[in-house]
Amino acid sequence: MESATKWIHSLLFFTFTFASLYLLDTFIISSRLSTDYQNIKLKKKPQLPLHFRSDGTFKILQVADMHYGNGMLTRCRDVLESEFNCCTDLNTTQFLRKIIEIEKPDLIVFTGDNIFGRSATDAAESMFEVFAPAIDSGIPWAAVLGNHDQESIMNREELMSFISLMDYSVSQTFPSTKVTSDPAEQQPMTDIDGFGNYNLEVWGAPGSYLSNSSILNLYFLDSGDRAIVDGVRTYNWIRESQLSWLRGVSKRFQGQWKFADQSVEIPLLPVMHPPALAFFHIPIPEIRQGPIKDIVGTYREYVACSSVNSGVLKTFISMGDVKAVFIGHDHNNDYCGNIKGIWFCYGGGFGYHGYGVAGWPRRARVIQAELGKGKEAWIDVEKIRTWKRLDDGVLTKFDEQVLWDIHTLR
Ligand SMILES: *[C@@H]1O[C@H](CO)[C@@H](O)[C@H](O)[C@H]1NC(C)=O
Ligand SMILES: *[C@@H]1O[C@H](CO)[C@@H](O)[C@H](O)[C@H]1NC(C)=O
């Protein structure tokens, strides 16, 4: 009897001690070792793959040459005398917020010179400011580098890694070897020139035959920064390793559409090769040489490109799927022009710290792909359209044009 009482006392004592230590740890010690548990941040992952909307459209906002410095401490270049005193990088941010708000794109693409390295004391801080409007919108965004991004304190590889880890970013430093939606299975392909070569798939509209297939492919390339050729300074160029990777990606998409129901007849399929769009920063030499046909927009600046022609246009022509290419670099050109069947479109200068023309508003480009309608549901891409908007107070929309229409191909 007595030993049973002792035993119960021991058990109670043990339980009490254990409970006290547990409560002490939970409510006092743990909470003191971590200051604010709610504020722990993981990368906010965008939904991948990208998809057309159920209204049959997919819209991309191209932002070229934001040229960001130190935010509110960095002044605007080439604005009117009357505008100079109250104009900083914050005006660039404000323009981005407004254009995202009015266009509500499905993807935002930054085509390089996102920061102007020489004016950005801390590259990472400037990048947080550059991409903040995209991140706040929760819209997936992709970026490539220009020739000025690495002129601060981060090199090109560091910049791309940083960019790819930011919230809602779908950017990649290296392309992946495998096409799979499971990121754990993807291996980065590091034996390729540059940082920021990758591709994104855009799948069909939900509930359509092509909802599980890529029907619009987006190619991103690193066009580098500077180079010296035969002792002469020039811009860098897209290398053969990049083009060879791209040819492989493009080939993979040829005839790859999968339908749950094999008997389905898709009426609009003259080529089983989905259209593609390419994005990079520095123009290719053919844009300088011409001839360029059907120019829509302004051509007011000499094309600044590399003296080396590495065969980018030839590669695009042989691939067959690239319908339009979107570039930046020359802020005072905002035109689209056709070279041998492929459109080359400038975004036009976006950022206020980048050079421009006073009184000629900063601008941005929008690209919209539209699906054709089958008997019951959306099918593949029927049309690719583009237009621009000005930062003129009312975001004037102008220069709308069709870049590609499946019906005119027959
Ligand atoms: C820059 O932003 C300020 C504050 O919103 C505004 O007053 C000014 O007009 C803007 N300047 C330009 C050139 O857009
Ligand atoms: C797409 O994939 C989903 C999930 O795997 C499946 O339920 C659906 O039937 C597929 N749709 C088509 C059109 O292949």
TrEMBL record:
Coarse class of the protein's main subcellular location: secreted
List where the protein spans the membrane: 6-24
Please give the organism: Capsicum baccatum (Peruvian pepper)
- Subunit and partners: Homodimer.
Q: Which residues form the Calcineurin-like phosphoesterase domain?
A: 58-332
What is this protein called in UniProt? Answer: Inactive purple acid phosphatase 28
Q: Which GO terms of the cellular component aspect does the record hold? A: cytoplasm; extracellular region
UniProt keyword Transit peptide present: no
InterPro entries given for it? Calcineurin-like_PHP (IPR004843), Metallo-depent_PP-like (IPR029052), PAP14/16/28/29 (IPR011230)
**Compartment annotation:** Secreted
Tell me which cofactor or cofactors this protein depends on: Zn(2+)
- What lineage is on file? Eukaryota, Viridiplantae, Streptophyta, Embryophyta, Tracheophyta
Any keyword Metal-binding? Answer: yes
Q: Name one GO molecular function term.
A: metal ion binding
Gene3D superfamilies, per the entry: 3.60.21.10
The text of the family note is:
Belongs to the metallophosphoesterase superfamily. Purple acid phosphatase family.
Alphabetically sorted, this entry's keywords are: Glycoprotein, Iron, Membrane, Metal-binding, Secreted, Signal, Transmembrane, Transmembrane helix, Zinc
Give the matching CDD domains: MPP_Dcr2 (cd07383)
